[in-house]
């Protein structure tokens, strides 16, 4: 029904894989959470917000929102390891402010 359906299917699967790996590794966690929320938001809109089959999408959306608001990359993952090594301007993408070393 959709022109280029195979292309859209590949892009959707690639997006799910990339955002899932970003969240699992803790790499650019806020970016991964926002991207995954965008995908799940589209799924919920496609199915209808009150549809019974959209409960899984709502749960994933809530978990991704929690990862975003709780700054999940701030404590564990690649973001936590790289936070001390990157400039302050990029530290916000890694889940929080850059730590300053104690004297």
List its salient traits.
0% strand; single chain; mainly alpha; 5 helices; globular; 103 residues
Please provide a brief summary of the model:
By secondary structure, this protein is mostly helical. The protein has helices at residues 5-25, 29-47, 55-69, 78-82, 88-91.
Characterization of this structure:
By secondary structure, the chain is mainly alpha-helical. Helix content is 62%, strand content 0%. The protein has five helices and no strands. It has helices at 5-25, 29-47, 55-69, 78-82, 88-91.
List the helices and strands and how they pair.
Blueprint: H1 5-25, H2 29-47, H3 55-69, H4 78-82, H5 88-91
Helix pairs in contact: 1-2, 2-3
């Amino acid at each position: 029904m959709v022109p280029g359906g195979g292309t859209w299917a590949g892009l959707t699967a690639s997006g799910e894989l990339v955002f899932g790996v970003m969240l699992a590794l803790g790499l650019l966690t806020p970016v991964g959470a926002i991207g995954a929320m965008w995908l799940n938001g589209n799924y919920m809109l496609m199915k209808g917000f009150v549809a019974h089959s959209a409960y899984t999408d709502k749960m994933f959306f809530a978990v991704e929102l929690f990862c975003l608001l709780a700054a999940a990359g701030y404590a564990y993952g690649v973001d936590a390891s790289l936070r001390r090594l990157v400039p302050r301007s990029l530290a916000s993408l890694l889940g929080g402010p850059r730590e300053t070393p104690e004297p």
